[in-house]
Amino acid sequence: MLKAAIVLMLLATLVSLFSGLVFLVKDEGRGSRVVNALTVRVGLTAITVALVAWGFYSGQLVSHVSW
Fold first, then answer.
1. The pTM is what?
2. Per-residue pLDDT tens over the stretch 45-63
3. Distance (Å, rounded) from C-alpha 33 to C-alpha 20?
4. Residue 33 to residues 20, 22, 45, 55, 64: CA-CA distances in angstroms?
């Protein structure tokens, strides 16, 4: 369940990234939609990092790195 939530948050971050690109090209930097897309993207990224941290803290995510 946690892994699915992390993947959904990453997909939402990508959608926000490309919507910001579309707004930047369409508005030519004059509108505030690019700033709003950046704000949403930063918020989604913060939630994703918090979910990953929670997963490692709770033991639902584990690292299998041998080094």
1. 0.83
2. 999 999 999 999 999 999 8
3. 7
4. 7, 10, 18, 33, 41
